[in-house]
Write a structure and sequence with these properties.
Blueprint: E1 6-10, H1 15-26, E2 30-37, H2 56-69, E3 73-77, H3 79-95, H4 102-121, E4 126-128, E5 133-138, E6 141-146, H5 163-167, E7 169-170, H6 178-187, H7 191-195, H8 210-217, H9 221-225, E8 229-231, E9 237-240, E10 264-269, E11 274-278, E12 284-295, E13 305-310, E14 318-325, E15 328-338, E16 345-350, E17 353-360
Parallel strand pairs: 1-2, 1-4, 2-3, 4-7, 8-11
Antiparallel strand pairs: 5-6, 8-9, 10-11, 12-15, 12-17, 13-14, 13-16, 14-15, 16-17
């Protein structure tokens, strides 16, 4: 029996989860590794070579590491659940004129839900992942903070996790920087791991062509939506577009329209297959409504609350006054922010602490 207890570790075959396995093993945990297969790119009609966490090579890499360290490794096929909860939502959101964030849904409804269910079946008290984020208990709440290496911080995509999930979660990499993890891999003889390239695309769109993905998932989509109007803020027709699902708020490139000044997508109207274009200044907004909220640091936001608010993963954030009304958040930025996209996640921070998040409605 291990000194620390039994933990179920999500293993992608990449460097982060592999070194997480090494750390847990060295710390005396009784580790069980599990690799979740969530998608099959070949079946979706893509032409790119299968890469990343769901490829056969990655699954084999995870299994080999587990064998070398002497702990069991399982493979869990979650393709049906992933297709139902993540991919279907991804398609529906674009068809509704919004820009989805599938990684948040995957973490909340697929990875953590699946891990906790299997942890119970395997008598594992805890689950662990290779995310760069920190977790602690404070005031009877489990709080997520930004990872020590803020260039790799992944707290933004974890805002949907519940207190019950966090209570049983371990982030073995929380006190390490990426450079230290790479050096640890080299020092322990895993040179190939340290040399592995990292993918930043959506896992089920590895060629980064979400428009092609939508066309493959929805028969005849391009014909159904082709030929809608580009209009300006006053409704004047500026030209024809290729279909509203193929554009995102803030987009400038690929519009194939010239009017003598740079134009950006400022609004998408799916009901009429219309894409509204405007200037860079037209993208600025000072207020937004956020729904489907999940609070982490507090059970309820304090009165007159202010927090740094991020509207996309790489956004540095902007200060905003936040009020909670009828289950939604009204967010008033202190200065206007650009390209607020409905469907994306709004995530709130207090220093390094993740306060919570939600889905931008408007």
């Amino acid at each position: 029996m291990s000194k620390k207890g039994k933990v179920l570790l999500a293993m992608s075959g990449g460097i982060d989860s592999s070194i997480a396995a090494l750390l847990l093993h060295e710390q005396g945990w009784d580790v069980v590794g599990i690799t979740m297969k969530t998608w099959d790119y070949a079946s979706s009609g893509g032409s790119s070579k299968e890469t990343g966490c769901c490829s056969l090579d990655s699954i084999n890499d995870a299994r080999l590491l587990a064998v070398n360290l002497g702990f069991p490794h399982l493979i869990l096929d979650l393709r049906n659940e992933f297709d139902e909860h993540v991919i279907d939502n991804f398609v529906k959101e674009y068809l509704a004129g919004r820009t989805p964030n599938p990684c948040v849904l995957c973490n909340t409804h697929i990875k953590w839900a699946a891990l906790l269910k299997r942890a119970d079946m395997l008598d594992c008290e805890f689950i662990a992942t290779g995310h760069y984020a920190r977790i602690r208990e404070e005031n009877n709440r489990y709080v997520i903070s930004k990872g020590l290496d803020q260039t790799k911080d992944q707290s933004y995509v974890l805002w949907g996790l519940t207190q019950e999930s966090l209570k049983r979660t371990i982030f073995p990499l929380q006190n390490y920087r990426k450079s230290e993890i790479k050096q640890m891999a080299v020092d322990n003889g895993y040179v190939d791991l340290a040399a592995k390239s990292e993918s930043y695309e959506i896992c089920f769109v590895p060629d980064n062509d979400y428009r092609g993905f939508l066309k493959r998932k929805v028969d005849g989509l391009d014909k159904l939506v082709d030929g809608g109007n580009f209009v300006d803020r006053e409704g004047k027709v500026l030209g024809k577009h290729k279909g509203f699902p193929f554009y995102t708020i803030g987009q400038r490139k690929g519009l194939e329209i010239a009017v003598g000044q740079p134009l950006y997508v400022v609004e998408i109207l799916p009901e009429t297959n219309t894409v509204v274009l405007g200037t860079k200044e037209d993208l600025d907004l000072q207020e937004m409504i956020v729904g489907k909220i999940n609070l982490i640091k507090y059970a309820q936001l304090p009165d007159n609350y202010e927090a740094l608010t991020k509207i996309r993963y790489k956004d540095p954030g902007a200060m905003a006054s936040i009020s909670q009304i009828n289950g939604k958040l009204n967010v008033l930025f202190h200065t206007p922010v650009s390209a607020v996209a409905p469907g994306q996640s709004a995530v709130f921070y207090e220093g390094d602490d993740l306060v919570g998040g939600g889905i931008i409605e408007r």
